[in-house]
Input
Amino acid sequence: MSLNLSVRCLDCGSEFVFNLNATACSTCGSQWLQANYDYKVLGFSLPSNLSRRQFNLWRYKELLPVDQFDQNLFLGEGGTPLVQASNLGMMLGLNHVYIKDERQGPTASFKDRQAAVNIAALKEAEISEMVLASTGNVAIAYSAYAVRAGIKLWVFLTSLVPEEKMREVALYGTQVVKVTGTYDQAKQVAVAFARERSLYLERGARSIPSVEAMKTIAFEIAEQLTEWLGHPAQKNTAGRPEIQWRSPDWYIQAVSGGLGPLGVQKGFRELYQMGLVDRIPAIACIQTEGCAPMVNAWRQNRNEAQAISSPRTHITTLSTGDPGRTYSLLYESAKTHGGVFESVGDEETFRALHILAKMEGLSVEPAAAVAFAGLIKLARAGLVKPDDVVVVNCSGHTMPIEKMILGDGGARDLSTTSYSMKETPVEGLLAALSELSAERFPRVAIVDDNPDARRLIRRILQARDNFTLYEAESGRAAIELANREKLDLVILDLMMPEVDGFSVLNALKENPNTAPIPVIVVTAKELTQEEKRSLHGQIHALMQKGEFLSDELLEEVRNVVKT
Output
């Protein structure tokens, strides 16, 4: 078995050797067990061992409950990229936002880690049949790995799971049982089925391989942040290795049952115990408002969550109504190391889904978008500070976009039927294409000395409408542009060297040819009352950088140019 791996009961403290088939403490019968390792030894040996290994989940094999990993089971799990979300961060006024892109796993969700470690442990223990309940992604991941290992899999899915996911599970040859009811009811049926047939049951947060698999997300983040930000300040502590890696200030994840953040929290705690990081980050667990038992308990300062029997959300993959003791463990961690439980509505989630696609080029499923809606909410509330290092788990894969998510206006119609049949087909098509000529679109100037800020505003406008866009990198260039081009709108920054935004505005208003041009001020400057008075009646809107979302700016622009 792995180096000095032991198991400790969270209730009575008894310790014993890890055995996958021993699902309860032999002393008190508790099913809440925790894997422990020799962290002092590993703190010195692990960094040097990693230099010779590939960047995937199994590079941390000394900290996983598998003795001899079977390479034939490997599908490429772990090693997912950490991507800087510069556009999203700039929009929120946050300087260090990173996305852990778990869509890049073999079945495109972070559940691949859980399936990979569990199936490897099952194969090693010569277990050939298992049972689990799922809302979709877990079932897909386990189906892929179970086939590879030759393990028969029974999956109990709630009838609310999207048909696309059900079909994908069935594609692998998994035995699918569709339960008409909630996810919690599907779990109850799965438990009864496994007990009746004496089959191995996937137990989520009570399963040692599951928790141990999820902590590898923390290990990877710590290594990757070090590449992004450099090594942290070294601490010379007697008997401890020097600090090697970086922890974020915040780790944010959408939560259903809570297994993911529970494992990630354990991962950062182990890194701290090994002396490889200097702190354990605050963890933000984000739930949907229609199924938020953890959030409800947190707001009442209770360490036990009251179950929700009838979840009311379109995001069915996050519809665990009873998180059980998992919440209590996360609650204790949040009280000790910092953290928060927050909920977001379905509408906020779909809005965040649009923003992430249009700002960062990432298309995600609604369950993953919940985490980003949570980030937006925490940033606007001031809980996440501008210089905080934030990592958001992009936990799930893209699903086919439904009309309820995309809404109207996702594409523009282009028809040739209204043009004369006397024209040749080519001429008719060219006539239709002329309707998309840039000359027909509103002409908007973006004025800012910061190229990243200009790029962000350009991205916002291009994402949802058609505009003819101009850019000016200085106040003087903006005045020249306004005199040269017939503009429908100027989006103006105030803080520019030499000729600032106030001077640009004065110049525009003093010239009869440019005075009618509407102006929207977008600035990071904290204005005095006198400055606000000077702008009154001169501009259409004043928007503070870092305090508006993309669609809010777009709405102001539309109000001016009437697109």
User: Anything to note?
Assistant: Residues 412-438 form one domain. The chain is about 40% helix and 15% strand.
